Amino acid sequence: MTTTSTRSVRGARRVGRTCAAVLAVCAVLAACGGNDGGDAGEPVTFLNVLPMESLSFAPEMIADTRGLFEARGLDVTFEATQGSAPAIQTVLAGGAQLTRIGDIETMIAAGERNAPLLAFGEPIHTGTIRMISTEASPVTRAEQFRGRLVGTPSEGGTSSITLDLVAGSAGVPPEEVSRQVVGLSPGVFDLLTSGRVDSYIVSLDTSVLLDHTRPETVVYDPNQDIDAGAQMYVTSAAQMADPQTRDRLERYASAVEEAMQFIVDDEANGFAETMRLIDSEYEVPALGDPDVAKAALAAYVDAYTSGDTLLGISPQRWQAAYDEIVGIGQLPPGLDPAAWLDTTLTPAPAR
């Protein structure tokens, strides 16, 4: 597997850039007989399965730009992978400490393929997939997908499974919902207006953009009918059992939790500081339209705060998601999904 850095094109660098500058100053002072310099920070690699320049990763970008990782002695690198499968493989092989994937992928990997994965945090408590249709032929309820042709970003995968779950919630068999791969290009909306597809699947960011720029857009939110779809921080059982790695994961989670709270609090100010900080280091397309960015961030805040705590995993929702996935034949019944969780990890405060 090949991964590439997803740092902003304004300058690839690690999150510990300030530490490097401090070290340089300390080296000069040491040469003059001053105190010894400090350490550069302990390395942590986070694998993002989507482009980093998405508001989906706003907590990571805020933790970076506000120095929250550095304050906890971490030198974090973001690396992109081509989907969740290589991210899972890399984490299991010890090539990265963690990734963020959906509960669906986590459960299928752990329950169907016996991958020794552990989910230890849930930064996004609800699904971020949306289905787009138009006012001319709206799809607003799960049962309306029966007999429809739905565009998907790729063959199979989480989007297609989510569609199966939505249809299944209304008793619609998967084979009664046709699919066509349409990709993710902006021109896909024209397939709707021309009648070539009845609906298509997009990210939360894209759904907000379409809702603001195409008045005929109708957005269906799967969260109204299914529990599955949350985003999980995932590591390997072996890495979680290692005290040093576990400590780094606790500090990573603490930095992200503080960043999430910052974004939640900044909603009262129209997310002005959140957008300024992200834009100072990252080129995020959604920030090109402040109204769209505010609406997207507000939707993410809803997803952050819909659980009991910002990173807490609800055992009840987790079990409900497993039951739904079993219901469409993607997992065998009788497994214990709680075995794929580690809810004992405690985020560590800044040092």
UniProtKB/TrEMBL annotation:
Signal peptide coordinates: 1-30
InterPro entries, sorted: NMT1/THI5 (IPR027939), SsuA/THI5 (IPR015168)
Domain SsuA/THI5-like: 56-266
Keywords: Signal
Any GO BP annotation: thiamine biosynthetic process
Gene3D superfamilies xref list: Periplasmic binding protein-like II
PANTHER family cross-referenced by the UniProt entry: 4-AMINO-5-HYDROXYMETHYL-2-METHYLPYRIMIDINE PHOSPHATE SYNTHASE THI11-RELATED, RIBOFLAVIN-BINDING PROTEIN RIBY
Name the UniProt record assigns to this protein: NitT/TauT family transport system substrate-binding protein
Source organism: Pseudonocardia alni (Amycolata alni)
